[in-house]
Task: structure prediction
Amino acid sequence: MFSKETYQNRREQLKKHVKDGIILLLGNVDVPMNYRSNTYKFRQDSTFLYFFGIDHQGMAGVMDLDSGKDILFGNDVTLEDIIWMGPQPLVSEKAERIGVQDSAPFSKLAGVLSDAMKAGRTIHFLPPYRAENKILLEELLGIKPGEQAGRASVELIKGVVALRSVKEDQEIIEIEKAAETAWLMHTTAMKMARPGIWEYEISGKMEGIAAAGGGMHSFPIILSIRGETLHNHYHGNQLKKGDLLLVDAGAENAMHYATDHTRTSPVGGSFSPRQKDIYQIVLDANVKAIEAIKPGVPFRDIHFLSANIIGNGLKELGLMKGDIAAAVELGAHALFMPHGLGHMMGMDVHDMEDLGENYVGYDEEFKRSDIFGTAFLRLGRRLQKGFVLTVEPGIYFIPALIEKWEAEGKFTEFINYGKAKEYIGFGGVRLEDDILVTDNGYRNLGKPIPKTIEEVERMQE
Ligand code: GLY
Ligand code: MN
Result:
């Protein structure tokens, strides 16, 4: 964990964003997989980790904005717990490590909150995303699960987003540690992309590398020769020469900082001319978008920059036609790239998505579009120094989408459907990197993973 001062300072900063009342931050609990004591791997809540640092289940933190006092709630382990699961520091010792003076058994939390509610004080809480915490919040605050997201504190959400969006130098170091593991995951997958191998053999190897890096994968691995399915978690295909293998995966390090990279490899080591054409357009969109990153630039503009590169490239291949700038504005390119250019990344791979995408990626100046494709852009607002975000353009040939748009006669002035149908079965290409916004520009985080056509082909020599 970071120093005691880190957590003290973060809590002090948060208090400046919320006027009065009580901030309640719930940690996560162990969740059963198939019976009570057989649990999923524990993952602490990221916001709790950010302000209270304790990577242990069954904890909650309270910050009293009127008295200025913080309290850590949790239960000391029993002798039986120690026998089965080993010793643990006392909750008071955990509190001491993060600079919190007061600690109490978890059962005392309800009383503290009900006294505050009786006194008419506001309890600020975040939108819960796990069933266990929804039930707990109902018990603590009397708010039904279905109403909790709507009654979460906007003041608190905005304060958390303001702080967590701008990464500290020590957080960048942690992301780069995760990136070392991610480099090995991706280069291993690229070398393994040979005819005859099964997708699960590669994804399994990658999960093992993530675990051997001291953490885990930052999200379920997306790995498929059917890369046109954007989040394809099915790993049951056998690779054959001529396929494209799309691998979108990341590592999460021991401190729970994530990475998120995508690479697309030709099975058997060489791209066909048609694959090269599409790959090069995506590569250009990736590189040019990264080069445009600097403080003050709206990420929405960089999204449109990459969409225009994709549109113009597809026009050269005869897949699109007409005025590409107009096509992109109206959303016609979304037939081929129906997602946004990227998202914030930190302790969560889609950082703070649990708090609400629009609070993280948009603001008073930039509102989310409702046009198909552009609406999936998770980050639109102006970039600031210290933001970490992904840049992940792609081109996909999704049969159901091509058929539907053609049947509807959609954007016939911009799309050559006859040509698009020739690409059915092609799959998809996506290229993704993790970028830090610096004083005057950007830094591509982690050791570069092979990306040019020559570099990628060389991986299977
Ligand atoms: N890497 C998966 C995603 O960004 O949605
Ligand atoms: Mn991503």
Remarks:
- The first strand starts at residue 22 and ends at 26.
- The two ends are 41 Å apart (CA to CA).
- The mean pLDDT is 97.
- The chain has two domains: 4-165, 169-458.
